[in-house]
């Protein structure tokens, strides 16, 4: 029986699951079926994984780096690394997308170490129609247009910006966000609260 977390045994880009155990839904099972097919030598399976997750990875990277060409390069490198490690990744209860975003996140951090950049993201690049359960914080964000949201996000600190990107633009759970950011769930909830409160303060007056 697989244990309730995922890892790529040969990769340093994974961490033990910090969230609670849960059964994978049909979409997650289908994604892992593609991983297993790729591990057995099905060359088309990895292409299907790419098609399924490339937009998710690209949008995450774009929010972090603020440059379309760089985001495309990092996204490509993410999938190249994933392909090289596909034979060692094992299903242990987590989404394939979380593994890919972990790789992308570390590539972004490598870039941050070598240069600084300013967030300038075209609004059309991040509007993918994903919905997240509308709690009080999501209701605050729903008042903001894409252009206004990105202008506000630009003024957040790096950690707050990443938390907002993962939770509300990518729709990851608190547990998934905590794992990717290497923090506990309580810290992510506090970070999310501060980030959304700050975004609310930055809202145009007519939207408050």
From TrEMBL:
Q: What is the superkingdom listed in this entry's lineage?
A: Bacteria
Pfam families recorded for this chain?
Sigma70_r2, Sigma70_r4_2
Question: Does the keyword field hold Nucleotide-binding?
Answer: no
- Where is composition skewed (Basic and acidic residues) in this entry? 12-28
Which residue intervals are annotated with compositional bias (Polar residues) in the record?
1-11
The UniProt entry's GO biological process terms, in alphabetical order, are: DNA-templated transcription initiation
Q: Which InterPro entries match?
A: RNA_pol_sigma-70-like (IPR039425), RNA_pol_sigma-70_dom (IPR014284), RNA_pol_sigma70_r2 (IPR007627), RNA_pol_sigma70_r4_t2 (IPR013249), RNA_pol_sigma_r2 (IPR013325), RNA_pol_sigma_r3/r4-like (IPR013324), WH-like_DNA-bd_sf (IPR036388)
**Record-level Gene Ontology MF annotations:** DNA binding; sigma factor activity
Record has Isomerase as a keyword = no
- Ranges where the record places region Disordered: 1-28
The UniProt keyword set, sorted, is: Sigma factor, Transcription, Transcription regulation
Question: What sequence ranges are listed for the domain RNA polymerase sigma-70 region?
Answer: 49-116
- Where do the RNA polymerase sigma factor 70 region 4 type domain residues begin and end? 148-199
Regarding protein family, the annotation reads: Belongs to the sigma-70 factor family. ECF subfamily.
Protein name per UniProt = RNA polymerase sigma-70 factor, ECF subfamily
Species of provenance: Kibdelosporangium aridum
